[in-house]
Amino acid sequence: MIEFGQLMSDMPSFQNRGSMKVDNVIPLAKGYKSFPSFTELTTTALTGPAVGLHTQLSASGTTNYCGDATKLYQMNSSIVFVDKSKAGGYNNSTTENARDFWSFCQFGNRVIATNFADNIQSFVEGTSTAFADLVSLKAKYVAVIRDFVFAGYTNESGTTYSNRVKWSGINDPTTFTPSQTTLSDSQDLPDTGNIQGIVGGESFGVIFTDKAIFRADFIGAPLVFQFSKVADNIGAFAPKSIASVGSDVFFLSQDGFYKITNGSKITPISKGKIDEFFFEDLSSNFDGICSAIDTNNSLYVVSYRGSGATGSSTINNKMLVYNYATDSWSTCSGQDLDFIGTASQEAFTTLESLDVLGSLDDLPRPLDSYFYQEGVLGLAGFSSAKKFGKFMGGSMTATVDTTEFEGAEGKRSTLINARPIVDANGENTTITVTPISRSSQADTLTTGSAVTVKASGDCPLRTNSRYHRLRVIVNGNFTNMQGVDVEARPEGKR
Length: 494
What we know:
Helix content is 1%, strand content 49%. It is mainly beta. Strand 10 (103-107) and strand 11 (110-114) form a beta hairpin. The chain is elongated, with a radius of gyration of 25 Å.
């Protein structure tokens, strides 16, 4: 069997230990499983493109919040985003290359949000009826480090400090006035470019600029925090590419994707695999890049606008999918999305409320699946119609190529049969095999006609060449794709 390897589109085709094309699947330790399609769960659209998504965790459950350019919303029990904006709304930009996202954090039962255009906002669950100014301070990024709220890339009294972080009083997010009593203060990070994001934590924080990365450690008065540069000439290329899980933070730098562990150890995760492919495919509207963590599948997912995109410049049409447990990549295409993030699922309390997913007979998963359970965090986002949803539908059409191989070492051969090793789980699932070949490494690839796999699992072929590649396409639900059994006959033999 020729096993399906991980996506390694930056490597040469021949004897690539991975694959040149792996689309609409989730990488596993062995093979791939299906990537679920996006399902809209709300019927009402936001007033503009989504620019932020946040899940607030509390003892009583979870609540989703989101924002567009002019409003902040809270999701109710009917899976409807209700406007909770301050009076007059907000003034964020929606132009793609000048797009300021909402940055959220949680401090106790308080939701804190900032967009740089307006004062930092606050909503206290159980008390507030609408968001309101937290302080008279504007910032692009907020996070909680230990017992402090951090604000980064600030605007103070009309003056912008793109390299400054400020932190609140200890256990008091309502004051950012420097004080030895409250321990509130600020720090400029010189000669490192603009701050691009902050990742909070109970022990330390990580601050990204576009040229460097810093670790922030609490050391107490008088300095309060110590800022140690842990990377130089490596920064965050796109602010919303930053996503964290446990002690790991993933991000896109100027030359590819990286992981930083425990705020200090930096590891490239895409070099020699997908860097060249990604930057060649990425459109000039890179400010729309956003990312999310899917802990159910151990995935870091990056949404971006790539080749073939149509419609509004705020719509992304591609995703990169990284399994951080197996250190392997895939892509996802065919889903136009406005924004992705992580969100909880509000419970479906009645059978009728499941109508948003179609009929009960069409549900892609059993009713007791975690996908339908309240409070379970999962990959979510907003469609091109600006409606909230989750990746919980049926399998997307999967495409996986084998490596390029010789059917007979050193000579031409005829492929006479292929048997894809695919665990399909539906009568309506169809599998096709497309031969791709060339006679020499100097030749361009020739793509043959797709052949449907028979009920026996066999796929008869008649492709004569020296170098071969097989493209397997699965249309319908399946659980695993492992590889292809190939029967080849050396040229000149019967």
